[in-house]
Amino acid sequence: MLRSTTATIASAVDLLQRSMDEMTVPAAVLHVQKDQDVLLSWHGGQAQDTEAVFSIASITKPLVCLAAARMLEHGEIGLDDPVSRYFPEFGKAGKERVTLRHLFTHSSGLPDFLPTNNLLRKNKAPLSEYFRETCAVPLKFSPGTDSSYQSMGILTLSKVMEKVRQTSTCEILEEEIVRPASLRATSLVWSDEFAGKLCKPIPTEDVEGSWVWNTSYWRNLGAPWGGAFSTAPDIAKILEVLLQDGLCDGRRILQSHTVRTVLLNHTALLPDMSPVTARRFGWGLGWSIVKSGRELHGGSGNFGALTPIGAFGHSGATGTICWADPKTGFSMVLLTNGKMPHVRRILRRCCDIISELGRTSRTIPR
What is d(CA 14, CA 192) in angstroms, rounded to the nearest whole number? Predict the structure, then answer.
């Protein structure tokens, strides 16, 4: 078993190292954990250590949703509140039935990106401009009847959070998640502390507007759908909180019922949801719930064929992925700055390798 485990670990590291030699992946940090035990913490390429900072792209979404879940816990917002209760101007173009639950679960019918997305980025538009256009855009389908990945839905959720708290989503994330979990290098906007530690993302041909990632505009925009910076250990700690029923270092930062709600497959429970969609895809509150291997659906599109069914996680267009399996307590975080679509194969292959390791091994030599 030990020999097999060592060989499995070596195959994941070799895959990443070969990708660095080919410059497909300039930098990577791989973190594997079982419950509270760190089993593997590896870094390579431009990542000087395992605390290297990455632009995590869409893994931002579940972090913002966790902060919103804390607001649910406090009774500040409700899952079935219509968005128009907070923003009457949103309830136009057939959007009066969109609720916060729809925003959390990618079932609102809002688009992923606006038709003017690239223009907004080129003009260095503030988030208020993105939201103004989101209020005017028509829905792709009736709320709760289908699932379609929607960055503008997470933007809308963040605007509700900000209206209730009268502060920025960045501050809410800091107050509700970063400080309680003692995260060391996670922020929705740039910090000078990241200088010298950041592995810059490579713009990619299959992500609209990705050229903007390394600009000061994007770094300070605070895009709640994809603008955060973090490290592999910080993201692993968030996964651990959810696996440990809301506990972090013995302190409770999420109530048990909140964790259950966050990880519940809401897609299957929406009464008007398409049965075909419900069978294929699952969304908790911001987290993708793995239904089958290699789901091609927004934030879950980079999972491997062997990623455990029932695991929760997310991925990002900058070459990042994380998941955790509640059944085994096994979790994986892989942060890279690889170029899509080339890095997608590497993310999936690493997911498969680590998934197999989770099924067959109890201990991993450090």
Answer: 33
Partners of 321 in the beta sheet? 315, 334
Q: How far apart are the first and last CA of the chain?
A: 15
Instruction: Yes or no: say if 181 and 231 are a contact pair by the CB < 8 Å rule.
Output: no
Q: What is the DSSP letter of 58?
A: G
Using only the alpha carbons of the chain, give its radius of gyration. 19
- What distance in Å separates the CA atoms of residue 44 and residue 46, rounded to the nearest whole number? 6
Tokens 């959720």 -> residue: 157
CA distances from 151 to 109, 163, 220 (A): 11, 19, 18
DSSP code, position 182? T
Give the single-character DSSP code of 187: B
The answer to whether 338 touches 26, Cβ cutoff 8 Å, is yes
Q: What is the pLDDT of residue 358?
A: 74
Two structure tokens written together for 246: 């809301």
Full DSSP string of 300-359: GTT--TTSPTT-EEEEETTTEEEEEETTTTEEEEEEE-PPTTHHHHHHHHHHHHHHHHHH
Bridging pattern class, strands 37-45 and 27-34: antiparallel
Average pLDDT of adjacent 10-residue blocks, the chain of 366 residues: 57 91 91 89 96 98 98 98 98 93 98 95 97 97 96 98 98 98 98 96 83 95 98 98 95 97 97 93 96 54 89 96 95 93 91 84 45
Grouping H, G, I as helix, E, B as strand and the rest as coil, residue 228 is coil
Q: How many CA atoms lie within 13 A of 242 on its CB side?
A: 33
44: β partners? 28
Residue by residue, DSSP assigns 63-97 as: HHHHHHHHHHHTTSS-TT-BGGGT-GGGS-TT-TT
Q: Rounded to whole angstroms, how far apart are CA atoms 209 and 184?
A: 29
Q: What is the pTM for the complete model shown?
A: 0.94
For 183, phi and psi rounded to 5 degrees? -75, 140
Please give the C-alpha separations between residue 106 and each of 37, 111, 298, in angstroms, as whole numbers: 33, 10, 9
* Half-sphere exposure (Cβ direction) of 234: Cα atoms closer than 13 Å: 25
Tokens of 312: 């929760």
